[in-house]
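Lab notebook, bench 4. The sequencing result for the construct came back, and we need a structural model before the next group meeting so we can plan mutations. Quick request posted to the team channel:

Model the 3D structure of this chain.
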Amino acid sequence: MVKLTPELISAAPSYLNPLKDRELDLRGHKIPAIENLGVTRDAHDTIDLTDNALTHLQNFPLLRRLKTIIVSNNRISHVSPQLATSTPFLTSLVLTNNALSELGDVVPLASLKHLTYLSLMGNPIREKKYYREWVIFNCKSLRVLDYQRVQDKERKQAQHLFVTVDNLPTALASSLSSTKSAPVPASKTFIPGTDEEPTGPSVPAGRAGRLMTAEERERVKAAILNATSAEEVRRLEKTLKEGWVPPPTQGQES
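Done. Here's the predicted structure in token form:
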């Protein structure tokens, strides 16, 4: 693994992405922990930490400009309660393919008052009962969860499940708040001059960090050809970057 040093950050690509946001690219270094981001001098709208070895989303300095954090394909099982203090204007958080497994793990996200877009695809937490209602209940400003727009009826259902007529948390809400993921075991650190290699979860098919199959490439080509606007192409590019391939169209299904 590679430490996130000031030198690494300074050498990382920084550019305007398709959404015209200033983005810092820290993908694919197997970074084990977030540190030293103060050297960015709050000059970025987006920070991309995809394909690293993070287990905790924490230790951000105060970054008022930062609007988007992408941490797909890591091993994150813990979100710091201080995240909202460090990134007060965060609007998009992509946690695709991580290790959040308990509903209580998302409670710190409730303090992100401007969060409108959240992806938890590929996390064990999505298999939990009340998952979607619980996330919507905690993240009041959320508009899109896992690529699906949040509906008013979902907000009402969440309110019914987790708030009493006296405007107090229900027993269910109190129970879910207390659940937390167990820490993810740390990967081995690569030691130069030895045969030791970092270990970590393999990357399943269809996720970022590996080559696409021939079938997936054809699906991407079809999606691009069928796009009807530049905005649709930008959305497609963003989802591909996060590791998700378009589903097969009717004509491609066997």
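The chain has a mean pLDDT of 86.
Will bring this to the meeting.
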